[in-house]
Amino acid sequence: MNMKELLLQNWDYTMGQEDWYPPILPALRDVTVEQALWKPEGQAANSIWENVQHLLYYKQRLLARLEGTPLPNEGIGNDETFLIHDPSEEAWNTAREQIQDVHGALRHKFEEMPQAEIIESPQRILSLIMHDAYHTGQIVFLRKLQGSWPAKRSFL
Length: 156
Description:
The chain has seven helices and no strands.
């Protein structure tokens, strides 16, 4: 397996293909808007939705860079990437669709990249893979705190 194939395989693991940690799609499956907005009382934690917004921002930023297009909110600070501007059910559904769409668009871009370009800078892809895994773990933990994550889960 070459570097490109390895990165694409791990890219797939972060969205919908199970490996040794749950990907984002199962982590968000059946999450209501109320669950998405919930935060543990008295804790400094981001909500599920805030984590999704954060992941979405960095995926959109890389896609814009690869396409050579400007990102409307490029200059914002990291804390601002977690903000939710419209806490409606429609906006929550849109955010979940957007995370899947931008992930797929990035995968397509990575597939189109020559192997040499990926080898030159694999870290930009690997960093997002690790970033997705980290925040998906936070989402799963929040769901466990809520009691909305199954006690036993089969994924094989």
